[in-house]
Amino acid sequence: MNKILVALVAGVFLMATQAYAADATCEAKAAEKKLAGAAKTSFLKKCIKDASGSDPAAVCEAKAGEKKLHGAAKNSFVKKCVKDASTPAT
Fold first, then answer.
1. Distance between CA atoms of 36 and 42, rounded to whole angstroms?
2. For the stretch 23-32, what's the b/e string if a residue is b when 16 or more beta carbons lie within 10 angstroms of its beta carbon?
3. Measured on CA atoms in the order 34, 37, 39, 41, is the torsion positive or negative?
4. 34: which of 5, 10, 17, 46 lies 20 to 30 Å off by Cα?
């Protein structure tokens, strides 16, 4: 049981690290391109999704893990995060 728990925690940590690294890299690319406003938001969403190689739900789960959210707060955060990620910027 402990091995499964350790593997699960390690997996979440790796996803969170990957999402954070992708986020930092994408922020740097957006700054380099001097993007702002909706263009920056749209660019960041696409860049993070492409860099992580996974669906928005996995990225949002990782972010919730970084914020140490649990239970209803985590579910609410992930639901809103996925909705925001799938909604095109205007």
1. 10
2. beebeeebee
3. positive
4. 17
Q: Count of domains in the chain?
A: 1
- In 3D space, the residue among 73, 57, 58, 45 whose CA is nearest the CA of residue 18 turns out to be 58
Helical ranges in the chain per DSSP H: 2-32, 37-52, 56-66, 71-86
Structural domain boundaries enclosing 28:
2-86
CB 23 within 8 Å of CB 66: no
Residue 18: predicted pLDDT: 52
Angle at 23 between CA 81 and CA 67, to 5 degrees: 50
Any idea which residue has 């739900």 for tokens? 57
pLDDT tens-digit readout, 8-43: 565 555 555 555 556 677 888 888 999 889 888 888
